[in-house]
Design brief:
alpha/beta, homotrimer, 423 residues, uronate isomerase, domain 2, chain A, 11 strands, TIM Barrel, 6-stranded parallel sheet
């Protein structure tokens, strides 16, 4: 894999020990009713591959519903084989090797049918879900749940619910949102007071079903700000999107996190739909001109709420290190999306380790849609972690090997347990 | 040279193979009527040296026309010898060693006269132009041509014309621009329609003379935006600079790129004349507070036009990686100006390789004014590329040596051929 | 220490030579009447430890005046022992080892009493101040002096006064500032003319007492701009904070720097009091959305004033490299505050070395409040410098060892002497 340690190196020794750590993955998009892939079609349909293939010129036709899955795989693999320099390619090669025994040095698109058939056999065999997790090894995976998700039919000790609140905050004006909230909570929201009641119902529902976090992604232009009761009541009388209403609902959700004692994951900086002609989930980008100072009023107003914060680029990581270093309730969380490539992980991770107390770093999350991606994505992170621990700490004598492994345990497991405790 | 691989290392082995690749240089300022230096005066007058010398305190007197070339060299060398830590110094030392056999470890300004005399002899000997290119080895060099450049007297298969459009877009109001365009195209521009006719004449002229690209540098405050026919017509009735007119002309040029099927190089982020007292070409700086989202309307509106994009700093590179990864028509291009130093090239290149499909990366361009700078500037890039390929790909087993060399070929030659095809 | 060179490496060889260089430290907060610590309480009360401990959950009670120093140390050490991954922890461990012979691999908070007692004995012994400096070895330390500091009772050849002007520029409206200035200078400021007289009195006072620099920290929103005499006179009639008055006073101070020939240190980008509930000196953060172009009018208007500039993050460092490369009077200065961790120092230093003439780089300053922190903070910098010199210059053959050591001498001593000459 790209940038992995050299065999025989100190980093490789550390990696072998780090690979024993049983991981808690604090953010994913796993659908608990179908957590594992059924074939390589579920792997190749991951937006990382469809968007990169599209970026290389692949027409979108093969992504339409009803298109033959096998032919879609043939098409996508043609393009994926031309991006052998990317981190995403190395995730795929790692999966194919580990789960299907694929042993070529370079991906050959002519192997598609064979891989397709084999993947159906392997991935649909009994016990595959467990085996797939064990390749991590991953013990717990946090989910991303819509506010009206029933949260039933899975074990919340393995798949931990997390209340995703983007729709409530940013799409209140969209048809059905208000009604769906009313159905879930029994409260028809028309002002600040009814909003507060509905959200409390919602939080209680989620907590009864094992939820341990609330989450949202925020656009670059967002400023966290308390909205007065009067102003917020006004906002609920409008149609259409409204900055004030978004700010007010967001603030009320933070208030619920405070009351119910659960962390609020903030994924800061994504611009939705910058490339409207892109593939599904491949249309969002970012604007580097943001600052965490836009969220400072929130950090100040809710000192008991933990805010794991994710950012999209290295420049923003400089701020995240400083804000996590100063604010007791700000936690540096994972390596998100466009920042989730080895070169950026390495520099961001090093800065976090040099500047933030270890308990305040959530090392990594998979962000995966299918379990098969957990192991290679975590492996990429662990390889970089092993190199940084070897070069910056163990080789210079700043830490013993045991200390370094214990630091890795904090990053991969203990901190997630501490920050998102089971109730 | 700064940061070059260690003799005997895997990176050095790769570098030796990479050095065989015959380069296509997709951006330079070579004057085809005098492509090579006539003496070291042509080397030392490169703005990198005059501006750094001036920054160290050199008075500007020696840069005036009519000043003795030999004495100018003496003066500049005094200062250049005091910047032995810089990348620019190592380009010069590399040229002096390779072309003049200069063998000192450190530049001694007392050698000036000897170097001057020798350089006149070597550089003015028959065949020097070819020898100089062969040191790359460089097969093709793209030019930067004013819109009324005659484009004659050189071989466009070696020196490829490129239509530079800054004047038309940003200096329309300056005396003579409109008239020069009328002389070249026979069209007197007074509104959108006549602009469209003039630009089509211009593009046809350039294409008949072998042009393969259009190019522009954009200030940090620029937002790409379509301007309505009515508004643009209005703008042409004004005197003075106008944001709307610049946007309208720019958009019309992009339309021509679409119609004529040629790429549009965008060099984004330079602020002109920040230091008005600086030396010629040493007055421009940048403002990091920009985002590629300012250009997203362009990328969306012209899906068939390829946009090789250059940026000025690592923070902006994070965005460039993401935008090239998502937009099929955005290409990450070279390491521009203030970002063209080893430390920044290394981190920017690694991020591009980890996140962008290889075909969408134009590895490097020389930006040179004289051919002698092609070899050392490319060597700097190739040294870094060799180290990244060794450390991130070959040593970890992610690529074979042959795969890595093929990747280097894409970056140094094939992608330029693919992106800027000969017509 | 984190990221230090490996024993036996070329970098370690260079480090041993670099460690002989007698340092001039161009910025600190040393109180010359009590430059050294009296016990570990003076070490642990450094804001880096109190803010990081607070960020880990330490209540602020122990920081109140009157709290037992010994018990405060017990409390802080409990938290500090949990941040063994940070650069700050490694400074402390280095001090404890070097000055108190502490030899554990990891800090054990149970050792607190023993360390406390021993530190009182060692630090209060005669000659400790000299010994402490000799561990650097540091010859001169620049101070940070309020405008009405008496500047007496210390040797200005060792502790060099520096006029800090934040209060005059940004807190003019606060009770007592105007009066204190009147007391120091005999001038009651009511308009531009009286301001000019008062500042000249002030500068003369400072220069008579050995001052060699003027300094200020600037918030991200600051734009340097000349204010007309009339407008500034108007501003002095207002109460309350005023942007125009701040700009006007700032400009007048720069004018004094020009007249009296002393450099003006600019520390650009800090937002004060972002976290009002934080510990003392642990409340300030930054906003990355700034540009040095905000200061360009200053650099242009005062070509003979040297401006050593510090920035707070790597993104801003890209600009600082470019501005120092172009403007003769801009100097890249140290690694400030949140940027003072090994990972960021390394990338910022490499960029500066590759792009800025060596004479225009002030390598490092301690920013310390007690002398004990000079040696470990400088050691961190020297370790990184040694690795960069080894990897980027000596190993590739771009410099001999002697050249590399001479470069280190410029960064650690000579440039400070050149830029801040004794009068």
């Amino acid at each position: 894999m790209i940038a992995s340690p050299i065999p025989g190196s100190l980093a490789m020794d550390l990696l072998e020990e780090i690979n024993q750590i049983r991981i808690i993955d604090p953010h994913s998009h796993i659908p608990p009713e179908a957590p594992a892939a059924k074939s390589i079609d579920d792997l190749l349909s991951y937006h990382y591959f469809t968007e990169l293939a599209h970026s290389l010129g692949m027409p979108k036709a093969c992504l339409a519903e009803g298109y033959s899955a096998r032919e879609r795989c043939r098409e996508i693999l043609l393009y994926v084989s031309r991006m052998d320099n990317t981190a995403q390619y190395s995730w795929l090669m790692s999966i194919l090797k580990t789960t299907l025994g694929y042993s070529r040095q370079a991906l050959d698109p002519k192997d598609c049918d064979q891989l397709y058939d084999l993947s159906e056999k392997v991935y649909q065999a009994p016990g595959w879900e467990n085996q797939s997790l064990e390749l991590g090894p991953i013990d717990q995976v946090f989910l991303t749940n819509d506010f009206d998700d029933p949260l039933e039919g899975f074990d919340p000790a393995r798949y931990v619910p997390c209340l995703r609140t983007d729709e409530l905050v940013f799409h209140w004006q969209k048809p059905g949102v208000k009604e769906r909230l009313a159905r879930r909570t029994g409260v028809d929201v028309s002002d600040r007071k009814s909003l507060a009641r509905a959200l409390r119902e919602l939080f209680q529902y989620f907590l009864r079903h094992g939820a341990r976090a609330c989450a949202i992604s925020l656009p670059p232009g967002f400023h966290a700000q308390k909205v007065s009761e009067g102003d917020l009541n006004q906002e609920f009388s409008h149609q259409g999107a409204s900055v004030g209403r978004s700010q007010g609902i967001f603030w009320e959700i933070a208030t619920c996190c405070e009351e119910f004692g659960i962390p609020f994951d903030l994924m800061f900086g994504v611009n939705r739909d910058v490339f409207p002609l892109g593939v599904h989930q491949g249309r969002d980008l970012f604007d580097q001109r943001i600052s965490l100072i836009q969220l400072a009023p929130l950090f100040n107003a809710f000192p008991t709420v933990k805010f794991p914060v994710s950012v999209l680029s290295s420049p923003q990581n400089s701020e995240l290190v400083a804000y996590s270093w100063i604010f007791p309730n700000v936690i540096a969380s994972g390596h998100w999306w466009y920042a989730n490539i080895p070169s950026l992980i390495e520099q961001d991770l090093r800065s976090r380790l040099h500047g933030i107390p270890r308990e305040k770093i959530l090392g990594y999350y998979s962000d995966m849609y299918k379990l098969e991606f957990g192991p290679p994505k975590y492996l990429m992170f662990k390889q970089i972690l092993a190199r940084v621990l070897a070069e910056d700490y163990v080789a210079p004598g700043a830490m013993s090997r045991a200390q370094a492994i214990s630091l890795a345990q904090d990053l991969l497991r203990n901190n997630a347990e501490r920050i998102f405790p089971s109730k």
